[in-house]
Amino acid sequence: MTKIKAEIIVKGAVQKAGYRDYVQEKARSLNVKGYVENLRDGSIRIVCEADEDTLKNFIKLINIKQDLITVEKIETVKTQPATGEYEYFDIKYGPMEEEIGERMVAAVKIAIATRQEIKDMHEGMKNMHQDLKGSIQSMHKDLKTSIESMHQDMNQNFKEMAERYDAISTELLRTREELKIAVDNLVKVVQKFLEKPT
Asked: 20, 155, 157, 164: which one is catalytic?
């Protein structure tokens, strides 16, 4: 497949965020040759050589919104046949002071973002703790209500059993008295029968 040379301009929050390193990593993974550099207006320029399909894939991969990087627009401003002049894909660095400053700004941005993520995570854990505390209190209340209800049911059952026992006991005593009277009457009848002359 025929290789082409493209000049690409990337706009958005792409400087002081590690975007050039990201672009270099993706270019090397696809065997794209060329370079990436910062422009004074805050955009990024990429000059690269690859076949057309690889170039399309490369552009898709570098069109990102993650962490501190927000690509707003990618524009291919120029294409021509590849010259084969690039051996690797490199980052073109600016003056040392500028690069150190950019890395320091990126580090501070990352530190601030990390701090915010930790604060958000802490807030989330605090909310989760409150929810968990509320759930435990609700479970405790439900358990207490259930135990009290069981206790009342048991007391009611024991009371009903005691009342039935009392009723049975009373019935047994009455039946015993009736049996005693019946036996006494039977004994009297038998005695009278025995007293009769034959």
From this structure: 20
Query: What pLDDT, in 10s, does the model give residues 113-142?
Result: 777 778 888 887 888 878 888 788 888 888
Beta-strand ranges (E) seen in 14-164 are 33-38, 44-51, 65-66, 69-81, 89-92
Q: Which of 28, 38, 40, 57 is catalytic?
A: 38
For the chain, the domains span 3-93
Stated as kind and residue range, the H or E segment containing 187 is: helix 96-195
Class of domain 3-93: alpha beta
Question: Active site includes 20?
Answer: yes
What tens digit of pLDDT does each residue of 37-91 get? Answer: 999 999 999 999 999 999 999 999 999 998 889 999 999 999 999 999 999 999 9
Catalytic site includes residue 40: no
Residue 133 bridge partners (DSSP): none
Give residue 95's identity as a one-letter amino acid code.
Answer: P
